[in-house]
């Protein structure tokens, strides 16, 4: 009886820890490829704004064009166990219930450092999507792949890009050199002010 009670508590703590660890990963910034994939999927599903005045999506305006959303399936026992093992391997399980700190936070030397992936934040993604919707740069016809701007060119303004003068470009270059805001390492994409922060001050 006592052993099964302790096992139940251990499983509950492990499940809670894994859930918190994976919830933290959901806040990680998305890569540009992930953003594009999400946008394409939203366009296929009709989950993009079709009418800027009402805010209605294509699915809401034309429900017959899109199939019903698939039912979300729960994870299998094996998938949950695999996620728990991964969380334990990387130290993303709660070690101290009072502080809520993970094993990795308490014992950072025991676990490999996470590799940082450059990507857009969720706000950046939303801003890009809003911009695309305002400009008509979203797919309106899945069969042809044509955008709203291509189908309805009169609804969207055509922006004329104005080039910078030579003096403006030179001024920007001088400012970037002064602040170290120039890529110094082509492999990592790190700037001078990131590699040598003491040399450049705000």
Structure description:
The protein is mostly helical. 48% of the residues lie in helices and 10% in strands. It contains 9 helices and 8 strands. Strands 1-2 form a two-stranded antiparallel ribbon. Helix 1 (2-25) packs across helix 4. The N and C termini lie far apart (64 Å).
What does the secondary structure layout of this molecule look like, with pairings?
Elements: H1 2-25, H2 32-45, E1 49-51, E2 56-57, H3 58-61, H4 77-90, E3 94-96, E4 101-102, H5 103-106, H6 122-135, E5 139-141, E6 146-147, H7 148-151, H8 166-179, E7 183-185, E8 190-191, H9 192-195
Antiparallel strand pairs: 1-2, 3-4, 5-6, 7-8
Helix pairs in contact: 1-4
In brief:
With 202 residues, the chain is mainly α. The protein has helices at residues 2-25, 32-45, 58-61, 77-90, 103-106, 122-135, 148-151, 166-179, 192-195; strands spanning 49-51, 56-57, 94-96, 101-102, 139-141, 146-147, 183-185, 190-191.
- Mean pLDDT across every amino acid position: 75
Strands side by side in the biggest sheet: 1-2
The main β sheet shows up as: 2 strands, antiparallel
Helix content: 40-55%
Q: Enumerate the spans where pLDDT stays under 50 for 5 or more consecutive residues.
A: 3-14
Number of helices: 9
Radius of gyration based on Cα positions? 25 Å
Percent of residues in beta strands: 5-15%
N-to-C span: 64 Å
Order of helices and strands: HHEEHHEEHHEEHHEEH
Number of strands: 8
């Amino acid at each position: 009886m006592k052993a099964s009670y302790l096992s139940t508590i251990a499983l509950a703590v492990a499940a809670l820890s894994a859930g918190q660890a994976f919830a933290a990963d959901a806040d990680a910034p998305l890569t540009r490829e992930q953003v594009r994939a999400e946008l394409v999927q939203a366009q296929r599903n009709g989950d993009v704004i079709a009418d800027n005045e009402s805010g209605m999506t294509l699915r809401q305006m034309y429900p017959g064009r899109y199939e019903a959303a698939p039912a979300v399936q729960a994870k299998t026992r094996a998938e949950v166990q695999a996620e728990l093992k991964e969380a334990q391997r990387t130290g993303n399980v709660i070690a101290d219930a009072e502080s809520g700190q993970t094993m990795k936070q308490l014992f950072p030397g025991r676990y490999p450092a996470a590799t940082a992936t450059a990507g857009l934040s969720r706000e950046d993604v939303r801003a890009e999507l809003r911009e695309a919707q305002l400009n008509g740069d979203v797919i309106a016809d899945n069969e042809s792949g044509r955008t709203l701007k291509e189908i309805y060119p009169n609804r969207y303004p055509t922006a004329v890009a104005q080039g910078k003068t030579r003096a403006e470009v030179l001024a920007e270059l001088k400012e970037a050199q002064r602040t170290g805001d120039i890529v110094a390492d082509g492999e990592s994409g790190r700037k001078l002010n990131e590699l040598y922060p003491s040399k450049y001050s705000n």
